[in-house]
Amino acid sequence: MCLAVPSKIIEINSTVARVDVDGVVRETSILLLDDVKIGEYVIVHAGFAINKVDEVAALQTLEDMRRILAADPQQTHGLNDDV
């Protein structure tokens, strides 16, 4: 399963941004969005930033995802496994 995960932009190089999710840094395409800036949060799905999201909503979503993963005793994957 692939989830769209809120990610913080920490670097921009042309059409590629480096994003951080819980300390894991990955590259994502920002071709689908206009005017993204370092420090903003975006929703990343399948390697593409698909939408901007405000910081409060992004942080709440990440916390909710952590709680869901922690509540499942069968869970063998973490939040960053499929980002």
CATH topology title: SH3 type barrels
Total helices: the number is 1
The first-level CATH class is given as Mainly Beta
Return the average pLDDT rounded to an integer: 88
Main β-sheet, in a few words? 5 strands, antiparallel
Order of helices and strands: EEEEEH
Stretches with pLDDT under 50, minimum 5 residues: none
What is the CATH-assigned architecture? Roll
Strand arrangement in the largest pleated sheet: 3-2-1-4-5
* Oligomeric description of these chains: single chain
The domain count comes to 1
Q: Would you report the number of β strands?
A: 5
What form results from the Cα inertia axes?
elongated
Return Rg in Å: 13 Å
Structural class: alpha+beta
- Report how far the terminal alpha carbons are from each other: 11 Å
Question: What is the strand content?
Answer: 35-45%
Helix content, binned percent: 10-25%
Gist of the model:
20% of the residues lie in helices and 39% in strands.
Description:
- With 83 residues, the chain is an alpha+beta fold.
- The protein has a single domain, classed as SH3 type barrels.
- The protein has one helix and five strands; from the N terminus they run βββββα.
- Strands 3-2-1-4-5 form a five-stranded antiparallel beta sheet, covered by helices on one side.
- The protein is elongated and about 40 Å long.
- The termini are close together.
- The model has no long low-confidence stretch (mean pLDDT 88).
